[in-house]
Design brief:
It is a single chain. This protein has three domains: 200 residues, no CATH class; 178 residues, Serine Threonine Protein Phosphatase 5, Tetratricopeptide repeat; 114 residues, no CATH class. It is built from 18 helices and twelve strands. It is of the alpha+beta class and 538 residues long. Helix 3 packs across helix 6, helix 8 runs antiparallel to helix 9 and helix 12 packs parallel to helix 14.
Amino acid sequence: MKNLIGIGLWCCFLLTQAGAQEFAFAPDGQSDFSLERVEGYKLAVAQKVFDDIHRARGDYRLQKPTLVLNKKEGDVASFIPDKLQIILDEKAYDVCVSFGKDSLNALAALLAHELIHYYENHDWKRHFVRVNENLEAAHLIESLEEGLKQEAQADYLGGFMAFSVGYNTYGIMPRLLVKIYEAYDRPSQLPGYPSLEERLKMVEGAMGQLQSLQIVFETANLLTILEQYADAAAYYKNILQTFQGREIYNNAGVNAALAALAITDAAEMPFVYPLELDPTSRLFGLKGNDKEKEQRRAALLTLALDCFEKVRVLDENYAPSYLNKACVLVMQREFEDADYLIKKGRKKTQDATALADFTVLEGIMAAMEKDSLKAAELFAKASGQGSIWARINAGVLQHSPEAGPGSSIPGKGVEEIEQFPLADFLASPNPDREVKVEEKVYCGIRQFKNSRIFIHYANSGKKYVLVQETQAGYPGRTLRNIGLGDDLDKVKAAYGQASRKLALSNGIVLVYPEFNLFFRMSNQSKVVSWGVFRKSSI
């Protein structure tokens, strides 16, 4: 997977003829949009990146623009509203290729910028100016015409679109902007434009805001993994104020459903769902009487359904929303409605893992309707398709210790990454960047050579979550000799059965609270990263 340190584009500018919103370089206000189409390999590569970015925005209520690769030198990249076309110069494509291993990331930066013109309204500029009030270029934005302000928004949100589907545009934009100026033989000062120097300053401002959004997004996902559901909800709400992508709504819905499960007695809901895979981590110590818990649980499930419905409206072909909504309906014992969504969701995917998950949910429904024989048959079928959730639920059905408590190997020693004690960071937090999520709630990040630390803290640090997770290429291993690339059987032999398992779109997470340790596993059951964590007791 591409490195997810992604940040956005830059502020390059201008509205020109026929309402075309373009990337740059038509100083006299006239652009030549005659086309000489390029087909073949280059178009196929650009189309793949374009489709990824379009999927990130996820608003399928609107017609998808057509991507055209133009052999003639034009405006670098441009969006033509009346033709619903995004035009990319072959010359600009070749500039992206010159970035070598970052060529796809550079291409994603260009294309995401243009897609944002299509999908977003453009009242964002006031926020950008306010948070960058000390940046001279920000005040320049305020004085520019509306089209130039819209370009700044395209930088910011376009970068997050690229980041959310795995393109690392961070650090590329200044270099790409300079290279484009050189390739198109443009002077650093164009009439009617900010200077190249000012543009580069604006790049820095957009990247800074985008990095903040990235930190909030990644911290939200970690909070869900570590069962901090209320805090994660605040983070997702923060993101949705800026970016309404289907994956964000989906994650917010999953988080709400998990929170509902956390206040549900395990005897009432013993089975594990593709969105929540730990029947033993119920929070029995929550304050409030049974009636209050039931009201809270009902409200959370309603919130989850609302989030999944928003996903469906954005993209009716997004299969995970059908599965997740069906899971919630099963929790509510609305079996007929759940069965309808399962059947409909199956038609939306050809992915074998996703199809097996639908079968697992059918097995859970059968078990809840006291048809143990049918449930066992469905779990066996899904297990044959490679579903780990099927094996876990079969264990629940048979009262097996596979999914039960106390099956992990007792922990000894303190796990560390890059020989850095997390206690030292807690004693004196010094993140590279800090972001305010809401009143009295902050998060931050600190980058090491082969790992990153994420910190969430609230109420003046009285409540906190601290996570350090490895990145690609980390050579170190855990105290029990588990490293990147090791398989699931080796992890289980070293640490036993994980007391918490959580489904991801590209695999699973195994959490070992007694070790303050977790492993991200790929769909091929290989360790892709591992992390250590600390949480406050409140």
